[in-house]
Amino acid sequence: MSALLSFQNITKEFVDKRSGRSVRALAGLDLDIHEREFVCVLGPSGCGKSTLLAAAAGNDTVTSGHVRFDGQVVERQHHSRGMVFQVGAVFPWLTAFENVCYGPKIRGIDRKVYEPKAREVLAAVGLSDFADHYPRQLSGGMRQRVAIARCLANEPRLLLMDEPFGALDAQTRLTLQDLLLQVRESYDGTVLFVTHDVDEAILLGDRVVVMSPRPGRVVLDIPIELPRPRDSSVETSDAFVTIKRRLRDAIAHAD
Ligand SMILES: Nc1ncnc2c1ncn2[C@@H]1O[C@H](COP(=O)(O)OP(=O)(O)OP(=O)(O)O)[C@@H](O)[C@H]1O
């Protein structure tokens, strides 16, 4: 089976504007992600996780190697690859509903099509009763739900999530993890999810990938064969604890 998203021997170098020195963020990274997989990426701070997602989204180019999506080299952004950041990218002057409608609307989709879809995804993220609220009237967790709904309204084949729950308090984070597990049951796309949280990666992922410190490359890539549907109770199982130990060990010896 060919990969939906493929990173082929990619290298990324940035030139630091102040010092003029080049910073190698990624070096010879190979990774294939297949249709419908939920792949979590773990790695130390600065190892190039966000750089990887930006390359997949088409927000930035790579220095060498190729990023392919559905066989085509990724050259620019496209609505089929949606991105959710740590702090929800939502328009403060639009209501939750208007935010969710925004993408399909500017692409010229018929209102009769995008409005019911927007209602459906707002319901999926538990915000039906807040459709007319502006972001300032919502909590951080609710704003993040809007950001997720905005992406889902575009029906992306690939959802790129860059520490989407990293800025939330612990309880809200658990709630949104559960929500994402539920959304996953109906969303038939592919997810590439960056996190610092080992528990979160195991709970959510079909596979977990560990990156080395900068310059980042893949040092471990393991399937998570815990049954689905999952909820947080899986975290006490022996299988979960064994996987967690293996991942922690890989992160500690990733150099
Ligand atoms: N625009 C840029 N200019 C110069 N260096 C950059 C730029 N963007 C990223 N870098 C550097 O590239 C490396 C990888 O950055 P990146 O943000 O991808 O790491 P990360 O793994 O996502 O980090 P974190 O876990 O802290 O979010 C870091 O050393 C960073 O300082």
Automatic annotation (TrEMBL):
Molecular function per GO: ATP binding
Keywords, sorted A to Z: ATP-binding, Nucleotide-binding, Transport
UniProt key word Iron-sulfur: no
Keyword Nucleotide-binding: yes
Domain ABC transporter: 5-238
Classification via SMART domains: AAA
PANTHER family from the UniProt entry: ALIPHATIC SULFONATES IMPORT ATP-BINDING PROTEIN SSUB, TAURINE IMPORT ATP-BINDING PROTEIN-RELATED
Name the record gives this protein: ABC transporter ATP-binding protein
